[in-house]
């Protein structure tokens, strides 16, 4: 799986030339070009998630808010949430 460094959309390989989300007129492709990340690459750089249960079945990534201003952070600075529901999980 590949992760867009700008918007954090997840894509299967092979690597698309450009991210379909970032090429939308409401988003952007960085001036230095499209970059794709991997989970292994992020782990090697020390990136990790630390989930804390805020209320039953609702978890927040504790690293999201702290790392918002880091230049190596992927995506738009959103704080990830994970909701455990009866038939699986929903991540935002």
Number of strands: 7
Contiguous low-pLDDT stretches (5 residues minimum) are 65-73
Report Rg: 14 Å
Main sheet record: 4 strands, antiparallel
User: Residue-averaged pLDDT, rounded?
Assistant: 76
How many discrete domains? 2
Helical content (DSSP H or I, runs of 4+): 10-25%
Number of H/I helices: 2
Distance between the termini: 18 Å
Give the class from helix and strand content and strand pairing: alpha+beta
Description:
With 92 residues, this protein is of the alpha+beta class. The chain contains 2 helices and 7 strands, in the order βββαββαββ. The protein has helices at residues 39-44, 62-66, and strands spanning 2-4, 10-11, 36-37, 51-55, 58-61, 81-85, 88-91. 3% of the residues are buried.
Keyword list:
alpha+beta, four-stranded antiparallel beta sheet, 7 strands, 92 residues, globular, 2 helices, three-stranded antiparallel beta sheet, 2 domains, single chain
């Amino acid at each position: 799986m590949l992760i867009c460094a700008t918007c954090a959309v997840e894509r299967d390989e092979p690597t698309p030339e450009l991210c379909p989300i970032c090429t939308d007129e409401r988003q952007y492709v960085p001036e230095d070009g499209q970059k794709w990340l991997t989970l292994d690459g992020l782990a090697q750089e020390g990136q990790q998630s630390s989930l804390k249960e805020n209320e039953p079945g609702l978890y927040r990534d504790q690293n999201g808010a702290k790392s918002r201003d880091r230049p190596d952070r992927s995506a738009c600075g959103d704080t990830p949430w994970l909701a455990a529901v009866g038939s699986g999980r929903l991540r935002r």
